[in-house]
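Reply to thread "Modeling small-molecule complexes from scratch"

Following up on the discussion above, here's a worked example others can learn from. I took a protein sequence and the SMILES for zinc ion and predicted the complex. Inputs first:
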Amino acid sequence: MKVLTDRLTESPTELCFSATPAWWRERCGPDSELAGGLQGSLEVRILIHCMGQDLYLEGETAGALELRCGRCLTRYRQPVGERFRLVLEPAGSRVPADPEGAAVLARDGVVLSDELESGWFRGSEIDLGSYFQEVIALAFPVQPVCREDCRGLCPRCGADRNAELCHCSEVRPDSPFAALRALRDEPRGGKER
Ligand SMILES: [Zn+2]
Ligand SMILES: [Zn+2]
């Protein structure tokens, strides 16, 4: 996603980028857990303008992520609509202290701070592909859950407890409550025969 910085003015320019599943897989690499996360394209829309020497960019993502529930393992779609902002200032003659950052600035014409809210740019053409990749990666939940009350799989028989009731005991032997519950379940005076 290339942006020609010398064409930008103080009035915002709108740019749209379609993050296709193929683009995403290539960006993430085949081994990434996130690689299968896009089954359809995600739209990234940005407004970009300059103020003085700086570039101001704001935008949002729209679409859906394809996720696997961490509890019941089914795949589900989760809509995304993340807003983001970025301010870029000219790098001038400055060079990022870390060699990796310096290489990225040389390659893309843009390098970002860790929080992704600011960065430096250099030259009349910058590539925002890495930035969009980060923005999309941030939209992925750390612990995907298909729905808040997902009951997950039975740890004993593997049944999907959202779909069927298995008859395994709810009480795991290692649970600190197991002993308590066993006591409570004991019929009154049950030990005496
Ligand atoms: Zn689930
Ligand atoms: Zn079960």
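What I'd highlight from this example: Residues 129-139 form the longest helix (11 residues). The radius of gyration is 25 Å. Questions welcome below.
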